[in-house]
Amino acid sequence: MEKITIIGTGYVGLVTGVSLASLGHNVICVGRNKEKVFGINNGKSPFFEPGLDSLLGKLVKRGLIVASTNLEKSVTSSDFTIIAVGTPTVKGKIDLLEIKTAARQIGEALKNILKYHVVIVKSTVVPGTTELTIKPLLEKYSKKLIGKDFGLCMNPEFLREGNAVVDALQPDRIVIGQYDNKSGVSFSKIFDKFSCPRILTTIRTAEMTKYAANSLLATMISYSNEISRIAENVGDIDVVDVWKGVHLDGRLSPVIGGKRISPGFLNYILSGCGYGGSCFPKDTKALLNFSKRNGYIPSLIQSVVSINETQPERLVMLLLKELGDLRDKKITIWGLTFKPDTDDIRESPALSVIRLLDEMGAKIVCHDPMLNRIRKKITYLPIETKDSAIDAIKNADGLIIVTAWDEYKKYVPEVFIKNMKTPIIVDGRRILKKSIFKKTTVKYKGIGLSSI
Ligand code: NAD
């Protein structure tokens, strides 16, 4: 079993650490925050991910995973170092500050290592970054020879927040971009217990694979939202039924052995408030900027980004059409996280909806099942929060559903009639059945349903 250090204890770093420790490897997760490191060493993840705390607790007890703030000591006591730090997009361009710092620190630690060591970039970076930015920093600060003293790989991560533990324990593919054969073969061995296909390729191909995968899913979402916009302007079209008709195409959901298979891919061919989270928005923008800098304007991806950025407006417009003016109106938002089963609010469509409602003078009240975990991150928002979804809609002039939490699916029309001042619902995820509102006083509006 191998000794592996992972730099970064975020969604990717910690979940990767848990997955590799589950394979029997000895993992050290390096973080910068002492409190978070202490929590991890006591089996408590700094963020919510289904199943993570219980698995982490078991692996900590077995001594297979430990967290540390000492990067140098961790790297020098390992054979592999995986970089899983953030690569945000700032002003449309990938920001390499964290990854450059990590590369420099790893380089300095490598200086003191005598045996062969492999550095692996897991963070999402635009093609060429590993070879043109990370490699020179590793060489400069380690004063060692790549290929001889240390190896280099790029191993993009495909886990989905909300399903990250399962994804990391049962990967569907492993892509490894290798600087040379020795790097790839050495690193590849750590996955020997996984039976999924492995692709050993060039570093730039691995980097590009991640952007191609995320852009494809983002494109499906913006395409679905474009269809809903066309439908909304016509009227008497329900996009939910449109997608049912599209999904049943045997090429998208084949019938095998008499049973229809419903691939996860279909979840991206649905209309809603647009994509959010820490990956799709930043990765599509980074690819767009990268491509332009390399002399090609990717007009499809440009449109994907622009449709996504304007999609939250559609929700607010639907409400505005019903209420005329939003000034001093009490508007409730159900759902702040960018999707269910996560406590991640990064680039959540809810943030755009809040900004627009605030600009229009509305009083905003929000509920989210993860409120307790996200409270500290949302203190800057001009909102009031409620611990119960029902309390949040009391006396409200309108409700916008932004996140498709299961909890919101159970409410019947009487709940809205009884609690809201005017029962107007804008369902941004189409999670409520429109038929239940027929013959009631609830005005049910939704993406891809009403004419605006
Ligand atoms: P994150 O922001 O949750 O975590 C990054 C962590 O790295 C932070 O905790 C930060 O403090 C830590 N860090 C930064 N520099 C450090 C250093 N020098 N030493 C120790 N710790 C350091 O980010 P994330 O969501 O885990 O994403 C990490 C990378 O993986 C990004 O490039 C992202 O695009 C990519 N990715 C993310 C996902 C996802 O679903 N979140 C999926 C696939 C790929």
Structure report:
With 452 residues, this protein is an alpha/beta fold. It contains 16 helices and 18 strands. The strands form 4 sheets. It has an 8-stranded mixed sheet with strand order 3-2-1-4-7-8-9-10, with helices on both faces. A 6-stranded parallel sheet has the order 15-14-13-16-17-18. It has a two-stranded antiparallel ribbon with strand order 5-6. Helix 1 crosses helix 3, helix 9 (203-234) crosses helix 11 (280-293) and helix 11 (280-293) crosses helix 12. It is elongated and about 75 Å long. The protein starts with a strand and ends in a 6-residue tail after the last strand. The model has no long low-confidence stretch (mean pLDDT 96). Residues 7-13, 30-32, 71, 84-87, 98, 101-102, 105, 123-124, 157, 159, 161, 278-279 line the site of nicotinamide-adenine-dinucleotide.
> What would you call the quaternary organization?
single chain
Low-confidence stretches: none
Strand order, sheet with most strands: 3-2-1-4-7-8-9-10
Q: Could you tell me the mean pLDDT?
A: 96
- The amount of beta strand, in percent, is 15-25%
Q: Which shape, going by the Cα principal axes?
A: elongated
Query: How far apart are the first and last residues' alpha carbons, in Å?
Result: 60 Å
Cofactors, ions, other ligands? nicotinamide-adenine-dinucleotide
Number of strands: 18
Proportion of residues in helical segments = 40-55%
Q: Mind describing the biggest β-sheet?
A: 8 strands, mixed
State Rg. Answer: 24 Å
Which secondary-structure class do the elements indicate?
alpha/beta
State the helix count. Answer: 16
